[in-house]
Every structure is written in C-alpha cells, then in structure tokens.
Please model this.
Amino acid sequence: MTEPLDLAKLQRRLAEFAAARNWQPYHTPKNLVSALSVEAAELVEIFQWLTPEESTRVMDDPDSAHRVTDEVADVLAYLLQLCEVLGIDPLAALDAKIDRNERRFPAP
Model:
C-alpha cells in the first residue's frame, strides 16, 4: 500500500529532484513565477476555444484529460517550489485568504 501524499512530501520530492540536477541556482522567485505563468497559460490553451459546455466535459476524453492533468501538475509543482523558496506555507496562506474573503464577502 502506498503512503498518502501531502504537500510537505511533494515539496521535498521537488527539492530533491532539483538538487540532484543542480537546478537550485535557476529556481529563483522570478524564474519560478515565470515558469508558473507559462504553465498556467498552457492550461488555459486547452480550454481557450471550448464552449462553456465543452469545458465541463474536458475530462471525458482521455487525451484531453491527460493534458489537463499534466498541466495542473506543472502549475502546482511550480507553485509549490515558489512557496518553498519564499518560505510560504501554501495551506496556511489559503486558509488565511479564505478567512479574509469570508469577512469581505459575507454570505447573504
């Protein structure tokens, strides 16, 4: 049986992967944000000309599902690496942002 995944383990794996290839000098905040933007754009490209209805069915086709899944993974990988480099706890950041949004936009 495999161990459940968590963000800290994935961040460690990403850091170890980069270290084994001596990529840390390139993993500056600027470079990571640029790469994140490129990967997010590649995700957008998949949906760019789909109708709203087609976009809700994108995961029904195995080829497009694979492309979407890969791009989501790329976006998350760069985001987690950016958080690691900047010392941001992504879960704590999201939790705090939800708290602020709940105060800014109270439910009716």
